[in-house]
Design goal:
By secondary structure, the chain is an alpha+beta fold. The protein is 39% helix and 21% strand. The protein contains three helices and four strands. A four-stranded mixed β-sheet has the order 1-2-3-4, with helices on both faces. Helix 1 packs parallel to helix 3. The longest helix has 14 residues. It is globular. The N and C termini lie far apart (27 Å). The model has no long low-confidence stretch (mean pLDDT 94).
């Protein structure tokens, strides 16, 4: 399964939850999460999506994760459709 398929499932899942998800890029800052998801409960998530096998965080991505979690922001690293579904179930 390709990372793009995982990303499409994430976007579909967030929309099904009543939320919105945007592709996230930050000029001048490498390693930012792939998506920002805003959910109807008011929570905002930074989400990194990886392919199921072999998808690991690059050092700058790990640094970004550390920064946002230190700032008490919500962050998720999701590798499979099943993990996305579990994440979504946990938001209810």
């Amino acid at each position: 399964m390709l990372e793009k398929e995982i990303e499409n499932h994430f976007v579909w899942t967030v929309e099904r939850m009543g939320g919105k998800s945007w592709k996230f890029t930050s000029p001048g800052k490498s390693g930012v999460a792939d998506r920002i998801a805003c959910l109807p409960d008011g929570s905002t998530w930074f989400v990194e999506l990886k392919r199921p096998k072999g998808g690991v965080l690059a050092p700058l991505q790990a640094e970004f994760r550390s920064e946002v979690t230190w700032l008490k922001q919500k962050y998720a690293l999701l590798h499979t459709k099943e993990l996305i579904d579990e994440w979504a179930e946990g938001q209810k």
